[in-house]
Structures are given as C-alpha cells and as structure tokens.
Amino acid sequence: MPRNAQVMLAASLAFFFVTATTFTSLGYVLYTMVAELGWSKAAAGLSFSLLGLACGIASPLPPILMKTIGTRLTMFTGCIVLATGFLIASMISDLNFFFVATTLMGIGFTLAAPSPPVYLLATWFPRTSARMIGFYFMIGSSGGIAGPLIVGTIVGLTGDWRLHWLVMAICSTLVGIVCLICVRDAVKVESVDQVKGIDGEKPKAAATWTVRKALMTRSFVILAVIMTIVQLVVTSTHSILVAHIASLGEGAAPGAIAMSLLAFAGTGAKGVTGAVCERYDPRLILIGGLVLQAAAMLLLWSTPVVLIACAAAVLFGTGWGMAWLSAHVLILRYFGAALAGDMTAMATTATTLAVLGPVGAGSVADATGTYTPALLAFSILLAAGAAFAVLFLRAPVGSADEETGEDENEATGETKAVGELVPAE
C-alpha cells in the first residue's frame, strides 16, 4: 500500500475512534455509571464538561509536539493518553478519579485529531488535499454514529460499564500502534506556524484585515456568540439525551439509537452544506440551521413519545451540521483566506464556554427531577441566536462578501486588494 494511503488510513481510523469513544458515547456510559455509583446529574455533567475543556486547553499542544517529536509520535502519544484515561475510568469508584480520566480523554483527543492528521493530508496530498480532508472529516464524523451503538452492545450484553472502558483502552493502544506503523511526515514540521492555516492555498493578494481589526467587528462577535451557543447545546445534548429519552419509560436503548441518528444527520448535513454554501447565502443556511435546532429542542421538551424524541434528534443533527459549517464558511467569506485559520481558532476558543452547558443541565435535573427545563432554555437560546443573525449579522465593511476584488478606502481613496476566497469544502 502506498505511504500516502497508509497515512490516510491511520488518520481516518484515529479520528473515527476518538469520535466514537468520547463525546458521542460518553453520555450513554454515564447513564449507566450514575445509576450504579449514585452520582448526581450535575457531577456527571461536570465530567463531560472537563472532557470538552481539556480539548480546548490542550489545543496548542499538537503543533508544539509535532515540531519537537514529529506527527507520528504526536498521534501515538494522543492514543496512549486516551488509553490511560480509559484505563483509569475502568477502575474508578471515586468521582474525582473519573474527572482525571475524562480530562486525559480530552487531551488525547486533541493530540490524535484533527490538527495533526489535517497537516498530514495537506502535505501528502498537495493536489487533492481539500478532497482528502473532506473524506477524513466524513469518516471521523461517522464515529459518532457507531459509538453509541458499540457502547450499547457492550454494556447491554455484559451489563458492565467497566468492561467497556477496558476494551476501549485496548483498542486505543492498537490504534496508536497503527499510527506508529503507518504515519510519516511528508514535510518535516519546522515551526508551529507551519501547522496553522494549512489549506494548501495561498491568497494572491494581501488581505485588508488584520486579526486584531477583525476581532473587533460586530460580524465576528455575533458569529462567535452563535457558535458558542451551538456548541453549548450540542455538548449538553450529547451528555443528557440518553438519560432524557430513558426517562420517557423505555430504557436507555432508544437513547443510544437517537444519539447515532443525531450523529448520522449531522454528518450528512455537513457534507451537503459545503456544496450548498457555494450556491446560496451561508447566512441564510446558518439561520435555517439555528431554527431547526431550536425546533428540535422544543420537540424534546414537549413530547413524551420516544419515537418523536428520536425524530427530534435527527432534526437537531441536521440543524447542527447546517449551522456549524455555514458559520465557518461565513468566517472565510468575511475575513478572507489569509486569516481564516486564525479567526476560526479565535471563534473556537470562545466556544470553550460551552463546557458550562452539561453542568447547568445536570444541576437543573437534580433540582427538578427532569431535563425538560434545560431543553426549553436551549430552545430559547438557539432562537435568540437566529434572531440576532437575522437582525444584525451582515458582512463587515471591506469583506470579501461585499467586494469581489478590491476594497475602496473612502477616507484616502486608496485601493486595497482582498484575499482570494478558497472554495468552501
């Protein structure tokens, strides 16, 4: 097998695995663990939040490690850290040790995906990097479909959540070995900046924006707030959906199916939205995605029927895929290709606040005995985000959306070129 094909295989396998075993399936395992160990729902939500917080805080680590030890050992280290977190989770009885476990899972996730693999694919496939990265994200997202079903099978057949964590620790080590064998750097990482903005394209002209100037625009602030709301609701939904559907009276199995349906819809929506954004205004798609998510939360809040709750999960996943991808396309359109990497990183950093969602939802459930008040609050938040996008989200003056090739400086009469757009993937 050619080396670039081996790299693609290892990178996609790693992303599939970390997606399947962390965010999308943790909610199912927590449902079983909370019942057996007597933890509060708020404590369970905090463990989920620590997973997301660790991912955000550890995000600067991959470029640094890639420079010092190489991409292959960076991904291998991520798998071993992940395996350590799983192993600790398989042995715990104390909540504090589980917090350590989920923190290690978050760090391992960040080291294994997606930053190192995206760099690998961009350098191993210079002519088709966009296409290969698209395949990579599609395969990785499909881990969210498989994860809850895998957990449901292991826990359902054995009744032992500890065995699940132990199996995942072994599998993570095996994935690390695959990365060790298959992954090689096509281009040695000489600096941290080399890893940033690796989309294989260079703008033909300097952008009119600087990072500092772009951060001060109303457009960016609104997009960052909307992305934070979306991420908060998505993270919270992953942590509570199984428990909420189980409370409707048919056990946890339908919740696992709903989680897989949510991930399947989100994966499909992201794949379609990239192409749609090339023909239609991404702002309208963003608004539509927020409205769909708000409607899904309203359905989950109001329905006592498991089948309708599962349909709401599909609706939510579709809206999530539409909103998340279109927001990234808008950042690219508004601020140009030259700053796309930096601005996306800034927006993603802001979404770290989303880790408060699972804790808040758990606290509400502890106080009221149900997640429905939290679901209603999430619906209101998403509707407010859609309203802000309708009323206030516009392309900033001088953006690529407003100018096709040049930005006329009204104060000086000078003409500045704007960065060339990169087609949305």
From TrEMBL:
<feature type="transmembrane region" description="Helical">
    <location>
        <begin position="7"/>
        <end position="30"/>
    </location>
</feature>
<feature type="transmembrane region" description="Helical">
    <location>
        <begin position="163"/>
        <end position="183"/>
    </location>
</feature>
<feature type="transmembrane region" description="Helical">
    <location>
        <begin position="371"/>
        <end position="393"/>
    </location>
</feature>
<keyword id="KW-0812">Transmembrane</keyword>
<dbReference type="Pfam" id="PF07690">
    <property type="entry name" value="MFS_1"/>
</dbReference>
<feature type="transmembrane region" description="Helical">
    <location>
        <begin position="306"/>
        <end position="332"/>
    </location>
</feature>
<keyword id="KW-1133">Transmembrane helix</keyword>
<protein>
    <submittedName>
        <fullName>MFS transporter</fullName>
    </submittedName>
</protein>
<dbReference type="InterPro" id="IPR011701">
    <property type="entry name" value="MFS"/>
</dbReference>
<feature type="compositionally biased region" description="Acidic residues">
    <location>
        <begin position="401"/>
        <end position="411"/>
    </location>
</feature>
<feature type="transmembrane region" description="Helical">
    <location>
        <begin position="220"/>
        <end position="246"/>
    </location>
</feature>
<feature type="transmembrane region" description="Helical">
    <location>
        <begin position="133"/>
        <end position="157"/>
    </location>
</feature>
<keyword id="KW-0472">Membrane</keyword>
<feature type="transmembrane region" description="Helical">
    <location>
        <begin position="252"/>
        <end position="272"/>
    </location>
</feature>
<feature type="transmembrane region" description="Helical">
    <location>
        <begin position="344"/>
        <end position="365"/>
    </location>
</feature>
<feature type="domain" description="Major facilitator superfamily (MFS) profile">
    <location>
        <begin position="7"/>
        <end position="397"/>
    </location>
</feature>
<feature type="transmembrane region" description="Helical">
    <location>
        <begin position="98"/>
        <end position="121"/>
    </location>
</feature>
<feature type="region of interest" description="Disordered">
    <location>
        <begin position="401"/>
        <end position="425"/>
    </location>
</feature>
<feature type="transmembrane region" description="Helical">
    <location>
        <begin position="42"/>
        <end position="61"/>
    </location>
</feature>
<feature type="transmembrane region" description="Helical">
    <location>
        <begin position="284"/>
        <end position="300"/>
    </location>
</feature>
<dbReference type="InterPro" id="IPR050327">
    <property type="entry name" value="Proton-linked_MCT"/>
</dbReference>
<dbReference type="InterPro" id="IPR036259">
    <property type="entry name" value="MFS_trans_sf"/>
</dbReference>
<dbReference type="InterPro" id="IPR020846">
    <property type="entry name" value="MFS_dom"/>
</dbReference>
<feature type="transmembrane region" description="Helical">
    <location>
        <begin position="73"/>
        <end position="92"/>
    </location>
</feature>
